[in-house]
């Protein structure tokens, strides 16, 4: 597999461009990072040295955000300080609220979030990305989303509750009632699991924008655009649609066989880097089993059949369950509607995106690859009035 040199920093080690042997930059090392490592063969995900399984079971989103941003897990004092800084930023500037209120109620929440972040940037952001801006923006993601979601359902946005953590406050802002402990726990683990993932498409996008010395809001708006597509973060609601369409265990095999044979991609399966089960899917599977034992029966049977049929009909492609498959079940179980699945992924990934923006600007070099030109050369130019 061909690789190129890391792009960050200013040390050019090789001036001969390397051509990717497959499309989509597969196998190309596009940056150096100390934030997270995806080992696609062993099925491991590491955040700054810590295994995702350890973090998912026993940390809060705020602890993991601290880890991603500052490079170490916080002690109690550092955690309390970060929590209070996040809580202090949970407001919506007037100019941004006007923009959110002006959106049609038919707008998808993911588009509303992207628009709110852009409006926030236009209203308050100047200068280079900073840790203060990172905290201010991450704190606001759930606040923007919940405000829009309530408005589109004819309800007024609520004030945040400073004593609640990130996950609990998000659920409170959406529903206006004390969130159940098991919902907060489930959502918190989800936010931990999804908060960073190596050089995925949206993170790469955020770093490209940061590398031009643009501002943090522009980097994160661009990342939101990249996350939205179904090949990246847009898959969970489509997993839910697929399970609803399949409907029963009896219907599963024929539905799946027909879909794969007809060239459809099964949502929640396959991954560019993991050639074994995604470790986040293992955590989410167990959480989904506990949260909704009845719904889990169909999801698990469809998963087993899909894996066996993918092996039969797509031999050698090494297609396994990815993070999105059980994300839908988990988010459903904590009471989030399908239109909030992808933006809730963004609530989590904002921590990773902003960590990568800060890392990029700390040792920046413009990200500017080359393209292989495949068009014609040396054509004879004919002026307009002679064509
Ligand atoms: C994630 C994903 C985009 C990775 O794509 P990729 O690395 O570009 O893989 P490719 O599209 O090159 O797929 C390689 C082969 O596996 C097949 N394949 C990949 N994912 C598949 C899926 N979910 N269902 C059926 N076949 C799949 C492709 O059709 C292709 O088959 P071919 O060799 O016969 O042409 C892809 O697996 C996918 O679209 N999955 C479904 C969407 C999803 O779950 N997205 C969330 C990702 S976390």
List the helices and strands and how they pair.
Blueprint: E1 36-39, E2 44-47, E3 50-51, H1 52-58, H2 61-70, H3 76-88, H4 94-102, H5 109-124, H6 131-152, H7 166-175, H8 181-193, H9 201-211, H10 216-227, H11 236-246, H12 249-261, H13 279-291, H14 293-313, H15 323-333, H16 341-362
Antiparallel strand pairs: 1-2, 2-3
Radius of gyration: 22 Å
**Span of the ends, CA to CA:** 46 Å
Which structural class do the helices and strands define? mainly alpha
Proper CATH architecture of the largest domain: Orthogonal Bundle
Q: Please provide the ordered H/E string of secondary-structure elements.
A: EEEHHHHHHHHHHHHHHHH
The mean pLDDT is: 93
> Class of the largest domain in CATH?
Mainly Alpha
How many structural domains does the protein architecture include? 2
| Subunit organisation of the chains | single chain
Strands ordered across the widest β-sheet? 1-2-3
Q: Name the beta content range.
A: under 5%
Give the distinct bound molecules.
coenzyme A
**How many H/I helical runs?**
16
* Shape by Cα distribution: globular
The tally of strands reads 3
Low-confidence stretches: 1-14
Reported by name, the CATH topology of the largest domain is: Citrate Synthase, domain 1
